Amino acid sequence: MKQKLKDLVQSLIDSCPQEGYIPFEEYAFQESVKAYLLDLCNLELEDVEAFLSRTSLLETLKKLLGEHLLHFSPNTLLWLAEVERGLGMFREVLEDNQRSLSAS
User: How far apart are CA 23 and CA 42, in angstroms?
Assistant: First the structure.
């Protein structure tokens, strides 16, 4: 399961839209999201599940950045949605595994 998380994170990082010119602030923001994703890989799976079940990346970013989040390019916003969707799918897989283990 840990390898699946690493593969997902690598896929999300690889899909980050950094072609062409983007403002430094947007580049720094994208790099911060990538660092967040890499940090998730360093956690134990139980901690990842607990963390993802309590927080949504997009909700957290909305709280932190407010309307400034909307100043990023559409490509970055679409990438954030992809990250959110990928993490949500991984959370569901972890929860399903946990239910399967509990039922055994």
Answer: 29
37 within 8 A of 13, measured Cβ to Cβ? yes
Could you read off the pLDDT tens digit of each residue along the chain, which spans 104 residues? 888 889 999 999 999 998 788 999 999 999 999 999 999 999 998 888 888 888 888 888 888 888 888 899 999 999 999 999 999 999 888 888 777 777 76
Contact 40, 9 (CB under 8 A): yes
DSSP string, 63-103: HHHGGGGGGS-HHHHHHHHHHHHHHHHHHHHHHHHHHHHHH
pTM listed for this prediction: 0.86
CB 1 within 8 A of CB 45: yes
Computed over its alpha carbons, how large is the radius of gyration of the chain?
15
